[in-house]
Specification:
CATH class of the largest domain: Alpha Beta
Shape: globular
Strand order of the largest sheet: 1-2-3-4-5-6-7-8
Helix content: 40-55%
CATH topology of the largest domain: TIM Barrel
Order of helices and strands: HHEHEHHEHEHEHHEHEEHH
Bound molecules: 3-methyl-2-oxobutanoic acid
Distance between the termini: 39 Å
CATH architecture of the largest domain: Alpha-Beta Barrel
Radius of gyration: 20 Å
Largest sheet: 8 strands, parallel, barrel
Number of helices: 12
C-alpha cells in the first residue's frame, strides 16, 4: 500500500462530527500546488480555493473579475497538492446568481474538472433555488453569510456586518435556511462575535468564522495574510504568524547583491 493511500481524507461528515465533538475546525485558503502541499502537511482540516485569488493572485481590487475557468485552474493545482484536507472551491461572481441551472452547471464543472470535494457560494434566501439544485445533484455546499465580498458594490464598504437588529435577524434566518437546504457548513464573515455565537448554537452544521469571534466551530484565514505576505491588509481579526513579505524581499535583495558582486554562483555551485 502506498503512503498516499494511508492518509485518510477529511470529509463533510468529519466536519459535522468535529462540531458534535466540540473539536475546532482549521481552514486556510490556497490557490496553487506548492502552497497546498505545505498547508496540507501542516495538518489543516479544510482548504478553501477562495475567489480571494482574484485579489491575492491576480491583483484585482475585488473578487468580482475572477472567472470560472480561472477558479478551476487554481482548484486543480490545489487538489493535486493535497492528500488529507477537504478542498472547497468558491463559485465565482456571476456563475450562480442568475438561475439554478447555471449554478448547477458551474458547480458540476468545478467538481468534474478540478476533482474538488465541495463548493462554496455567497448569500442566503436570494440564492435558495441555486443551493437546492446543487445539493440535490449530490454536491456538498458550504454557505457564506455576513460580509459577502461579491456584493461589495451593494454594501459600499468592507465594515462589520449585522450590527443592526434587522440585519442580524435576517442573518440568523438565512443561516437556518442554509442548514435546512442541506449545506454542510457555513462561513460567517466579519459579524459581531455574539451573533456568531447565537448562530453557532442554533444550527447543527459547523460555522467557520473569519472576523466572527471565538465561538464559531472553526476559523478560516487567507493564507497570504496569515503568513504576512501581504503588508497592505491589516484588519483587527487578522493574526500574522510570519512576516514573509520582509523575509522574502530581504532574501531577494541579498540575491541581487550576490549576483551583482559575483558572489553567486561560487565554484561549488557550478559544474
Ligand atoms: O475567498 C475567500 O478567501 C473567502 C474567505 C475570506 C472566507 O471567501
Amino acid at each position: 500500500m502506498s503512503v498516499h493511500s494511508e492518509i485518510k481524507r477529511i470529509t463533510t461528515e468529519t466536519l459535522r462530527k468535529m462540531k458534535f465533538d466540540k473539536e475546532k475546525i482549521a481552514m486556510l485558503t490556497s490557490y496553487d500546488f506548492t502552497t497546498a502541499k505545505m498547508v496540507d502537511a501542516g495538518g489543516i482540516d479544510t482548504i478553501l480555493v477562495g475567489d480571494s485569488a482574484s485579489n491575492v493572485m491576480a491583483g484585482y481590487e475585488t473578487t468580482l473579475p475572477i472567472t470560472l475557468d480561472q477558479m478551476i485552474y487554481h482548484a486543480q493545482s490545489v487538489v493535486r497538492g493535497t492528500q488529507r484536507a477537504l478542498v472547497v472551491v468558491d463559485l465565482p461572481f456571476g456563475t450562480y446568481q442568475s438561475n439554478p441551472e447555471k449554478a448547477l452547471e458551474s458547480a458540476v464543472r468545478i467538481m468534474k474538472e478540478a476533482e474538488a470535494h465541495a463548493i462554496k457560494l455567497e448569500g442566503g434566501k436570494e440564492v435558495e433555488e441555486s443551493i437546492r439544485k446543487i445539493v440535490n445533484a449530490g454536491i456538498p455546499v458550504m454557505g457564506h453569510l455576513g460580509l459577502t465580498p461579491q456584493s461589495i458594490y451593494q454594501f459600499g464598504t468592507y465594515k462589520v456586518r449585522a450590527k443592526e437588529e434587522t440585519e442580524a435577524k435576517k442573518l440568523l434566518e438565512d443561516a437556518k435556511l442554509l442548514e435546512k437546504l442541506g449545506c454542510f457548513a457555513l462561513v460567517l464573515e466579519k459579524i459581531p462575535a455574539q451573533l456568531a455565537k447565537k448562530i453557532t448554537e442554533h444550527i447543527s452544521i459547523p460555522t467557520i468564522g473569519i472576523g466572527a469571534g471565538k465561538y464559531c466551530d472553526g476559523q478560516v484565514l487567507v493564507y497570504h495574510d496569515m503568513v504576512g505576505m501581504n503588508k497592505d491588509f491589516s484588519p483587527k481579526f487578522l493574526r500574522r504568524y510570519l512576516d514573509l513579505y520582509s523575509e522574502i524581499s530581504s532574501a531577494v535583495s541579498q540575491y541581487v547583491k550576490d549576483v551583482k558582486n559575483v558572489n553567486f554562483p561560487k565554484d561549488e555551485e557550478s559544474y
